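Data card: per-record layout.
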Amino acid sequence: MTKTILSSACLLVCLLAVTTPSFGAEMSVMQYMELEDAAVNKDTGSPVVNVYLMGVLDSYGIANAMLRDRKQQQLYCQPDNLALGPMNLRQLINDGLKKIVN
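The structure for this 102-residue chain is written out next.
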């Protein structure tokens, strides 16, 4: 029975490794705009963009924490009164895109 469980677990890990997208995935501005335009709920935006932005925010947060622990210069200084999340990060991106496009 233990051998069956181990075989099943090994198969699951192999399947996940083959089917999971790359952790280095990136999103172009065009992809971002297409996903946002196609979003059903314009207030919350695209769920795909939300997940992507959360990953970006988490990654920068982890990188900053590591740099802070090493007493090195951080990538950015987030103001204490600004809680960054996908909604307000999306707004910052959209505001920046409007300036570029117009």
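Known properties of this structure: Residues 47-69 form the longest helix (23 residues). Confidence is low (pLDDT under 50) at residues 9-20.

See the next section for split statistics.
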